[in-house]
């Protein structure tokens, strides 16, 4: 597996050759489970490399623990170890995994150092132990490290990871996470190689530290990442227990009452420490959501740079008063930033302007300092997750105090081998900037149109004995508000995609021009004060119109086929998903009664003025509008193409 063809290897998509590359990587194509292989040169001694790699929790933050349950030496000078390993789940939608493995370390005849590891089970004499609570048993197929020393203190390292993660045991929607060798390569195999390279560069002086303390930075990064993983997973043996749902299953809430006020000193404001009493603890509200056509790196970069777009989610003052722990803050000001383990990962200190603690004019505002970890923001890293995790800190922070991290993790779900995630981010606005670039859309592959990712978010708050239910209710509301905000951000960032009714860019231009011309013919007025003039200008006017415009075909069941930016926002959808919207489900009960009469009126007289009402978005959120206008859209031969609806002064109902 390490040097030959025991696995059908193909080159890892997105790996760029060159002097700055960390090495080479390959992933399996077919065969059992998922597998990844990496190779690189490291200026460390073989024994040191093996020591680092065998201490998996030190460099792999997804590894919760690794325990050596027993060990013995072999006659040839090797070592055999029986190992139990627990791995965190990356989302709230699946269980964590554990392994029972046998690991063999030895020097072979040619002087190479080999570390081999594979799962044990009853069939080959392994322990017949059941998985721990909250875990599912996974299988490690033969994996390990081949370390070849060379003159000058340099070693080549071959790393192989081969696992069967039991993809059939998870929800179908996230099954690609457990079937993607690219995800395994990014999350495990390449992380090992990057970590070794970083340690080597620090040891040789190749990396300019500029006063940084890399070991301290790594320790802080480890603590904040591990704390977030603990929050997402909520293991019972850590003291977490679930609260009863409020009837809506989109947000789950867990509490941990094993941490005392002594342990939480750095997380609590001075004024709150005296209030913290027996019966208090930590509350975590978490959720996962599916996003489409937004690369994880793009989304996480935006969430980091525009905190006010999601953090200030319109909660009432009393809700903000209930929530403590630093997650509810806006107005960021970066203090300092340092790379932690690689160029795409950095740790920064940020000062946030807090909300007033009550709604009265005398309310005091509290500033919060966050330690923030940002990872995976390289757009070309195929299969890599991106995350933004932050925790409140103060000058009293010490090594024995747990952090309370909150944040986001976005993981790509598409596991195609055609380089998904490498497409250019292209929206309708970028089309408008270059009217002569008619091939902007046609160059996009099918995988680009349907990229999906799962976003997991978790927010931790401190509660007291007397206000647990209030904090839980406010936390649920806060996370739901953040979900809505992030959904809006994702739609704004989503690339423009043509619907199935319209192929190349020219068809979208023509239809937008027909919408405007048909409006002029029906009402004797221009839709916008801006002169459309030509087809390209028509698309500009259509897209940027302040009111929502939604077009649908007239069939037995109407189908949505076209919309401007405001229309997409009103429907809370993306361009590529317009056609899957059920038109009937966008009406409330009263609107459904008159829907077909409105269609008939437009068909008969060419247009209709409709009273104000309510429409439901694709997520079921009601949007009210003052009034609506509908007109028949025809081509140059007066053949009907669709019916356009314009909703004036619409807004979501709180």
From TrEMBL:
Q: Which GO terms describe its molecular function?
A: DNA binding; DNA-binding transcription factor activity; lipid binding
- Please report the stretch or stretches of sequence annotated as the START domain: 1-208
Q: Per the record, a Pfam family?
A: START
Q: Which InterPro entries match?
A: HD-Zip_III (IPR044830), MEKHLA (IPR013978), START-like_dom_sf (IPR023393), START_lipid-bd_dom (IPR002913)
Q: Does the keyword Nucleus apply?
A: yes
Task: Provide this UniProt record's keywords sorted from A to Z.
Answer: DNA-binding, Homeobox, Nucleus, Transcription, Transcription regulation
**Mind telling me what this protein is named?**
Class III homeodomain-leucine zipper protein 1A
Q: Which organism is it from?
A: Phlegmariurus squarrosus
